[in-house]
Amino acid sequence: DVQLVESGGGSVQPGGSLKVSCEATGDVHSSSFQNLCMGWFRQAPGKEREGVARIATGSGNTYYADSVTGRFAISQDSAKNTLYLQMNSLKPEDTGSYYCAARGRVSTCSFFRVPSDFEYWGQGTQVTVS
């Protein structure tokens, strides 16, 4: 099957920037891993996992949580099977473990915004803003 692996996390001062990546490996040409909605979620200690951004791989349409709109940008490199999240103007409240996730066989990300909507998950990469 497909595995998702995040990287690029680290520590940054408030106002700084960071870019995290998520590479898909394994059977990426499987019919179940096509027409994707891919998303970034984050989870801070003691808090629920929340959606940060999503992208429909077919159309390129993107969606952002209100808390990150204007500061974060989600993108993809299909040739590298990699998803990115560029994070700018970081705030302490952005601290958490960042996870990438995917759901296949869809044509839109409009209806998929909570963790249970996604079937593929990475192990997370830690982002600390302090």
Give your account of this protein's structure.
There is one protein chain. This protein is an all-beta fold and 130 residues long. Helix content is 0%, strand content 48%. Strands 2, 4, 5, 6, 9, 10 and 11 form a seven-stranded mixed β-sheet that branches. Strands 1-3-8-7 form a four-stranded antiparallel β-sheet, with no helix packed on it. The radius of gyration is 14 Å and the shape is globular. The relative contact order is 0.31.
Tag the structure with descriptive keywords.
single chain, mainly beta, four-stranded antiparallel sheet, seven-stranded mixed sheet, globular, about 130 residues
Show the helix and strand layout.
Blueprint: E1 2-7, E2 10-12, E3 18-26, E4 37-43, E5 50-56, E6 62-64, E7 72-77, E8 82-87, E9 96-103, E10 120-121, E11 125-129
Parallel strand pairs: 2-11
Antiparallel strand pairs: 1-3, 3-8, 4-5, 4-9, 5-6, 7-8, 9-10, 9-11
